C-alpha cells in the first residue's frame, strides 16, 4: 500500500477560492523554499484565474510569475489548470492559439496540465491533450463532477474511458462545488481504478464540509493523489488544509509523511499574507456552508451572486434566483457549474427572475443552447433552442465547436506589432484572451522611477523591447533582484 500523495494548491486554487486570486508573486516567493522541500506530488501554481488576475489586478506578467516560481521550486513538478479549448478564458479559441499557449507554458517550465471542459465534452480536450503530450509533458484529463439526473456514476466513469483513449497520463475527478460525498467518491474512484491503470487524483472543495471525508473514502478506494492547501488559504471554499488532512490519516496504512513543523511555519507565513490580503479574504474560510449542497452551486458562485444581486438591486430576490438556477441548468442540458458555465447559468437565472423566464437571453446562453460550447450532457430544451436560433439567426452546431474557428496566431502577431507591443507567442496568447489588459500591462505606468545606472546596464529580460517614440517597460535583474521600470524618450 503506497502512501497517499498530496498536491499542494496554495499558490493557485487556495488563494483563488479564498482571496479572489490576489496573491502576488512577491507574496509567494518567501514560501517557495519550504514548499519545494516538502515533497508534494505537484505544486499547483498557474492557470485558472491566476493569469487574468496577474494582468488585470496585479500588473504582473503571468509568464514572469511562472519563471520565478519555477526557478524557486526546481524539485517539485508544477501543475496548472487549463480550461481545454477555453484556455484560461470563457470562450473557445482556435486550435493554433490553444497549441501556442500550451507550448509557451511548457517552455516556461509547466510540467502537468490539468485539462477540463465545462461541459465534459471530450472533443474540447483533444487539442490540448495532444499538444501537451507532443511537448513531452503530463496531460491530466478531468471529469468535472456534478449532480443531475443525467450525471450517473456510469456516465462519469465512461468519460474516463475517453480520457484514457486520448492517452491522458492521469485522471482527475474535479469537484469544484464541494458536492462529492464519501460513498459516491468511493464508488467513482473504484469504478475508474477497476477499468484503468492510470493514477487517479481527487480535487475537492471544503465548501460543504465534506471534502476531507470524501478524500478518505477516495484513498480507501485506491485514489493515488488528493489536493490539499495551507490555512488560511485552505478549508472553507478551498481545499482541505494539509495538516488537517494528514492528521485525519493518522494510523491509516496509507498515511503520508509531510513535515508538520515546516507546514506550521508555512501556515504562520501565509497568515501574514492573508492579513495583507484582508480586503479580498472570503469570510467562507473555515466556515461550512451546507447551502452549497442544497443549491448545488460552487461556493465562489454563491458569494459572487450575493454581490451581483446587491449591485442589480435584487438582493431580496436571492431565493428566487437560486430556485431558477436548476431550471436554467436543465434547459441547457444539465451543464455542470464550473467556469465559465457557472457564470452563464447564474447570469441567465438573474435575467429570468428580473425580466421573466427566457424574455431576455444573454448571448452566452444563446451560444450554449446552440452547442457553441460543445455538447451538453443532457438535451437542450427545444423551446429555448428555437428561441436561440431565432434571435441569433443561426442553426445549432453539432460538430466540435473549435472546428468553426479560423487560425488566429498570425493575425495576433500583426495586431501586437501594429499596437507597438512586443511580438512573441507569449504576448500573442495573452493578447488573444485579455487584449485590453495585455495592452495596459505594457502601457507606461505613472510615477515610474528613473532606472538606476547599474540597472540600465544589465537588462536581463528581453520580453519587453523599446519602441521608438514610446515609453517602454523593462524588467531588470540587478544582483539577483528584479525591478520593473519605464523608460521614456524626453524630447
Ligand atoms: Co478547485
Structural write-up:
- This protein has helices spanning about 10-20, 25-35, 50-55, 60-70, 95-105, 125-135, 155-165, 180-195, 210-220, 240-250, 260-275, 290-295, 300-310, 320-330, 340-355, 365-370, 380-390, 410-420, 425-435, 435-440, 455, and strands at about 5-10, 45, 80, 110-115, 140-145, 170-175, 200-205, 225-230, 470-480, 480-485.
- By secondary structure, it is an alpha/beta fold.
- It folds into three domains: about 5-280, TIM Barrel, CATH 3.20.20.70; about 285-405, Conserved carboxylase domain (Cyclin A, domain 1, Orthogonal Bundle); about 410-440, no CATH class.
- The chain has an eight-stranded parallel β-sheet. Strands 9-10 form a two-stranded antiparallel ribbon.
- Helix 2 runs parallel beside helix 4 and helix 8 packs parallel to helix 9.
- The longest helix has 17 residues, at about 260-275.
- It is globular.
- About 50% of the residues are buried.
- The model is unreliable at about 450-475 and about 485-490 (pLDDT under 50).
- Cobalt (II) ion binds near residues 176, 203 and 205.
Brief characterization of the structure:
The protein is α/β, with parallel strands linked by helices and 491 residues long. It has 21 helices and ten strands.
